[in-house]
Queue: 2 jobs
Job 1
Amino acid sequence: MRTVRRLIFGTVVRHVALVAIAFSALFFFIDFVDEVRNLGRLGYQLHHVLWTCVLMQGSHLYDLFPISLLIGAILALSRLAQTSEFTILRTGGLGPGRALGLLGLLGVGAAGLMIFIGNWYVPWSEEQLQVHKAQFSTRQGLKLGQSGAWLRERRPLTDGGHHLVTVSVGKAMRQDQFGDVRIFEFDQAGRLLRRVSAREAVVTPGEDGNGSVWHLREVNDTVWLTHDRLGEGDVQQARPVVRDEAVDELAWQSSLTPLVVSASVLPPDTMSTMALWRYTRHLASNAQAAQRYEIEFWKKTFYPIVCLVMVALALPFAYLHARSGGMSLKIFGGIMLGISFVLANHISSHLGLLHQWQPWLAAAAPSALYLLLSMSAFVWLVRYR
């Protein structure tokens, strides 16, 4: 059994690695052609272009690995079937259950690799990529759309009430440093009480481990004083009810941790599973729409299972006899089946967001459907072919 396992594992892993390298080389070339147009701007040299393309490969690998796994497994198993090696293994005692178990072990190993890439390597490479690009940008940071990224928190008061604080972040320099920050504080009646604008903010964890401290620089602090906040002297002397102050630095206490802030400015597909979970909890606690991030959280949670679906889709090709003809067409059909799975996975997310489906259902439905389809084909081939 050890020899059988070594043969199947070695053949599949070798073909999957070759397909993954081919895809990576293709996308590296595409990224290089796209980035080389900026060569020479603000000191952007050739080695900077190469490092940028290397950092981009993390997200490409995460997106393309399931397809590489499917194509590589189909090529490997089809080759074993074409050379009659798999037929010999079957006559030697390799039953359908054992074959499914061997490929299941490969799928579990691939799923573990996907968990590592999606939760550690991709977030790290995306952060390094943004820091690297910021060195050669006139904006000195990643611009977050026309209106920036918006966050909200409820600040409790001693009398049992609360104030609503809205934070706008215009751009991100790194995971804990942001630019063009605006802070708006409202009372329970929705009246604006305070506006703070800063050119830059560095977010650090609080001393007690809860919340964070925003170290604001080049600050303009505007406070609107309502009559219940004005002193008796202010009313008598008819002082202005708006106080505007400019300071170099200001420390602002907040419950928005660096992880929550960095999660809000990153694209959802580049965030780790834990960061998505924390951010969805923050959005839900502040009565903000969280379904988009919930769907992405469940997609990333179920994404390693895609590897099991891919090897399950490839297994029936080991039971197709090459002498029956049309092997190339069957392999092409299997590859198109895998591409259709990726397409259905993306469409399901958008449909779930549009029709307000349960997030876990929108994320898990394509995997469950294609796994059922592959197992049905496998059982039919074993039984009738």
Note: Confidence is low (pLDDT under 50) at residues 234-238.
Job 2
Amino acid sequence: MTNNSKSLGSAGRPIDEIVAELEAKRSNDASWETGKTFGMVYDGGPSVREVAEKAASLYLHENALNTIAFPSLREIQSEVVGWTGALLNGPDTTSGFLTSGGTESILCAVKAARERARIERGVTEPEIVLAASAHAAFHKAGHLFGLKVHKVGVSDDLTADVEEMAAYVGPNTALVVGSAPQYPHGVVDDIGAIAALAASVDANCHVDACMGGFFLPFAEMLGREVPVWDFRVFGVTSISADIHKLGYAPKGVSVILHRTKELRKYQTFVFDDWLGGFYASPNMQGTRSGLPMAAAWAVMQHLGIDGYKKLTASVLETADAIRAGIAEIDGIKVLGDGAYQLIAMASDTESGSPIDVFALGDALGAKGWVHDRQTPPDSLHSTVSNSNAGIVPQYLSDLADCVEQVRGDIIDDRSTNYATLE
């Protein structure tokens, strides 16, 4: 029996029947277990799933709204923040909170920057300076919190154009943004130069490491060349890092770090004129589920540095092999000089027979491979993770076949979609 009515039925339903219907609903979802989905779900393997699920069952009902009632969640948050701060070379003063994901971490960073600029510098018309490659959540934050956003272009190497950014940095600047790496092409911005711009006007500098926070440190440990981008850079005031991406925790948990508690205080909303009593909230949410927090804690403890290095080594090997395979196929290429887990595949316009990559994406989709469309320029995005280990031969074979299948085709649908609109 399927309940398609728009109103909730009067009688309840048996558990087995409900679970069976949920399983049926999933039949058309992306099949991340097969390794054909690049991004969205990051699978650390059977033991990681097991420890996360056991931790989740213990904290299914706990609420981090009030850690006085649930002191274990206060400890969990403090420990995860501390481990992440150490991983990102933060000083002993590094402080932060757990959030529901990268967007919330970014919102918190922007709100903190706005408040600091207002309180310490008297800025009443705050501004953000960022590159076109910076995550869309910064524009969302500007819209929500009333900051003017100055968007500049990217350089030939697809990193943020620092010279163009400098033209917009001034007395109203509350925040200057860099990415490590940026999502569209997987390259790391010149964080040193960006942080120096922010410091020149005493503004905040936020590094969006939602993609790199739990990957770049381990890649560096493995000997991969990584530019210095974290709290080792003078002028970096905050960093966001998603544990539910390459940290392999289940959705949704991220970390927002500030260099000091003094900087962190600007993130927290405090209200002491309510009949319900004193209210303070550091996040966009009020009630916060303890489940993802506990699962993240458990996964980090289970993996440790060595576990993360092993997973990172596997991802680097997979991503390098995919990049090399793309380079061997006429008509397509990798955009930028990314060397980590993110790949943007585009038409090779210098080829005698360039490919419409959106047509290519549709052909790959028919074979079960899930990519995100991006533009400009038109490209197919892949975030390689441990989920994709072992799929390279099949993927490159299907990719070559699909390129030949669509060679010469141009499709009308040029839409790109990274959204929830229903």
Note: The CA atoms of residues 47 and 209 lie 26 Å apart.
